[in-house]
Amino acid sequence: MTRRWNTGVVFYGISVVIIAVSLAALFQLLRRFEFDLETNVAALQRVFSDEGVLKNPSDPLISFADIEELADKFEDYGYFGRLTVTKLFGDNERVVYPFYFPALLSDADSSTTTKELAGHPVPANPPRDARKLALESRGQTLGYLYVRLREGPLETVRLVIASLSVLLVGAMGLLAMQFRRQEKVISRTSVELEEKRRELVRVERLALAGQLSANILHDLRKPVLNIKNELQDLGAGSVAVSAGNLREQVDIFFEILRDLSLERFVRAEGEGEYVDLNDLLRRSLALVRYERGNVEVETSFGDGLKPVLAVPARLIQVFSNLILNAYQAMDGSGQLKVVSRAAGGSVVVEIADSGPGIPSENLQRVFEPFFTTKPEQAGTGLGLYISRDILREMGGQIEVESSGAGTTFRITLPVEGQLAGHG
């Protein structure tokens, strides 16, 4: 449906552009026609205004031959139809071309016009397509030229312009309707994408939780076995010593549960709160310590870091995912360095490993959804993508550096004083 509407928008958009360009071209053509018409009319007026044609107003002699020669030259040519020329004798306007026109006019009654008369404009009642032009010389009006104009091409262009204007308005209306429909589709799609994104975050969190829970038993097995051994030794040794050892192992048991906080991690919902970034880093390290192996962990947590507004479990999800990736990249041996420090109005966290690094061709793709270099059963390819999404919601960002050996992820988060300015 979206594709069909996109096609409709493109179709109507192209139609609007074509019609608009056509209208612009027709307007140019219309102006050209109008300019040519006025230029020719002005030239015709100058030619007939020559006093050698109509003579002086007080001179009754008229060069009929010159007038007829000019009329034959311009009449029914180009923009011009039939002509009528008059001369002023005092206050009287007399027709001098065609020279037989006055006789025809006097013979014709008010309701009948002869064939010869029909083509020439009548000064007393000129037709709509006639133009009255004053014939002047030396500031004096000698007479008038009545010329019928052929505006057929102009009228055709005007009609086409009017038709295209209607089409343009209609196409723009349809285009606006398509845009409104498309806007609704985009809005609905945005809501659906946001729901899917949240579901992906939840799925990735559950996947990581499943991976963690598979290793919780390994961590819990040690204190439980120790408790079992102490119970077996109660009969042979001191009860007080065994009881103390039991309490110690139980404390370890609950410490593991408290550090993992798996139930809260899976939910990872709720309002944001101001959190101690260093504490979240410690909890994240504890959460994935099962994967540590012989990796040497070095921490350098900055003192007096300002609190960060976040949903704790979401930030733990980001940190634990990065630390887990680092452990897996080093395959049980190497060095992990976790650093936190203040940087202006932000707090920076760096998680660096001494693993094999990320190939340059993959470096720009690590944050793409479903991109992973791990075996299919070992990763979903969503961890880094979702981590970046979570950090962006907090107004933060994540960067990655890798130069052949080792990888460093750098996280920047706004501190309390900067939150009000974040959009």
What can you tell me about this protein's structure?
By secondary structure, this protein is α+β, with helices and mostly antiparallel strands. It has 2 domains: 153 residues; 152 residues, Histidine kinase-like ATPase, C-terminal domain (Heat Shock Protein 90, 2-Layer Sandwich). Helices cover 54% and strands 18% of the residues. It contains 12 helices and 11 strands. The strands form 3 sheets. Strands 6-8-9-11-10 form a 5-stranded mixed sheet, with helices on one face. α1 runs antiparallel to α6, α9 crosses α10 and α10 runs antiparallel to α12. The protein starts with a helix and ends in a 9-residue tail after the last strand.
Secondary structure elements and pairings:
Elements: H1 2-48, H2 51-54, H3 64-74, E1 80-89, E2 92-97, H4 101-107, H5 115-118, E3 130-137, E4 140-149, H6 152-232, H7 239-260, H8 262-267, E5 273-275, H9 277-287, E6 296-301, E7 308-310, H10 312-330, E8 335-343, E9 346-353, H11 360-363, H12 383-393, E10 397-402, E11 407-414
Parallel strand pairs: 6-8
Antiparallel strand pairs: 1-2, 1-4, 3-4, 5-7, 8-9, 9-11, 10-11
Helix pairs in contact: 1-6, 6-7, 9-10, 10-12
